[in-house]
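ENTRY TYPE: protein
CONTENTS: sequence, structure tokens:
***
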Amino acid sequence: MRTFIPCLLLLLLFNACSPVKNDRPNIIFIMSDDHASKAISAYDNSLIQTPNIDRLAENGIRFDRCYCTNAICAPSRAVILTGKYSHMNGVIDNSRPFDGEQQSLPKLLQDAGYRTGIVGKWHLKSTPIGFDHWYILPGQGQYYRPDFKSPEGRVSREGYVTDIITDEGIAFIEGRDPEKPFFLMLHHKAPHRNWQPAIRHLDMYDGIKFPVPENLHDDHHGKSKAATKQEMSISGHMSLDYDLKMPDSLVEKKNMEQEIFFWIGDGNLKQRMSPSDYSRWESYYAERADEYNTLVYEPEAIVEWKYQQYMEDYLSCIHTVDENVGRLLDYLQESGLDENTIVIYTSDQGFFLGEHGWYDKRFMYEESHRMPLLISAPGLEASDDDHMLTNADFAPTILKLAGAEVPGDVQGESFHEILTGNSPDNWRDAVYYHYFEYPAVHQVKRHYGIRTEKYKLIHFYYDVDEWELYDIETDPGEMINLAEDPAYAEIIETLKERLYVLQEEYLDTDHQQFLPISVDSISHIGVGRPYKLKNKPSRGNCAQYKTLTDGIAYPEGEAYNIGLDNWCGFQGDDFIFEMDLGETMKISEIRVGFLQDQQRWIFPPKTVEFMTSQNGMEYMSITNALCNERNKDDKIMKRIAHAAYPGLETRFIKIKAKNITLPEWHGGAGKPAWLFVDEVIVN
């Protein structure tokens, strides 16, 4: 434990309770996106040096056991804003908007006399409420020449997103009312996927060989299906074009059949850079493609090569964050505000940096579950702390530091006493976790669990029912699942009892209320009929020629969290379908369903044409419908295209659905959309 001097902080806390309102501390809450603790040198200096973020540890507390309650972007942000778990604040996954009318940290601070602001990534599908000033990225935002939204409208800004967010944060502070304390949430986009560095740092780590995680080639032996069925592996799911930024046209795909090529877009990247910057970008990543083309295909070697490129880009993004943290801290010192300002640094969750062979987050495994947390304040000297915290604790702690009341329905606990060198009475010795976003991108199954000082117990549910148990002390890499070991049966039962107590405490006992919509069984004359597709699907079970006539379909209309397993997906290609009914018969209608999920780049087709034929060669068009006007619509839903023709005699049916390019307002403007097709119903 390092030295701890709380004197000045005690004075700040005294002032927080003082009737002299402008003596209360200013609070700056800096949050990056997907910043793993091991990519901060105050925690681990094996990958990167972050001297400016480390300044917070040198003048404050490094918390070593802070955990996320739901390791994904929007839910974590909602937990931080409310101090309540995902099932209580309404944002259980990235598809749900945040209801700003509910009780929240910024509104409570406003009531307590603070001027509040948020700058940077919001990512909650709603307008910020409770902030005197807001200047936010739409959606995920862009790295280069990003757009920002504010009450004055939407603007495009020249430059790199991390620099601009810091500029705007400093501008908020400079425009403060000196008679009022301020609370600023400074939310960086970096280092979120797809890890696009500032142009000045493109080649910063070029040629450096980073240490490879011991379990980079984890085969997930002994783990549940969740570990083997995920879609976030460096080997099979980290794409060469989107993630590693190599131009598809320059990559020689021979002998690389297992690699995945897809583009989920960057919103006209070339248009977001100056000609000179884009030329440098293009040249740099063309060299990466050239290097890739020289590799001899060997699976483990390819994974290690991809890991090195991933680290170069990811850490370059973090370097720019660190630069800008330093710029902000320098400003506070030069202006004298450091004498009355508490600075907090964290991330919305952890991130996999090759551990278990993965990137991304979501799982309750340690690399994703654990968050960095550094708090600097006047009067603190370097200290580290091992109390078990969660991101639900941030709101009540900040309220206490501000001298505001903590409402009784807040589920997190304030750890402000820890900042003054005290250990709170009866502090927790276990944390609760619940991840909901499945089926969805990356296909990480739903799970909840408990982490104690020594053990972690996880239950994967919905379409599986499997448990995992890890001894964190002896197996910190979580490689050996002990759930089936009879020697641990009693420990598992004890942990389950504790888990269920936490679920009762946090009011999370109804695990049916947020389950995805169920598929329907439908009887129609097309069930089991053979069909042909002109274009091979990019995703789905169509290769077995069953999915579109298996009698299983999602109901029409708006729905939550529709799974993709029962659909055929086409990226950029049209859907051209032919079915043979086996004999001439009378039909009355043909129906086909299309998924709309614009956040995941899935749009209904532009047009759908229905045709029939007696001989399979000469077709008659019976309906040609306009389906998609390409308007913005955040609803996730199944749309139906329908052709009614009572008494029509036919044997063959053909459907042509025209795919689209993404519209100008979309983040991937100009890129090919995904077209997802459900059951073709013939009555």
Notes: Residues 299-335 form the longest helix (37 residues). The radius of gyration is 27 Å. Residues 138 and 398 are 26 Å apart (CA to CA). Confidence is low (pLDDT under 50) at residues 1-7, 254-267.
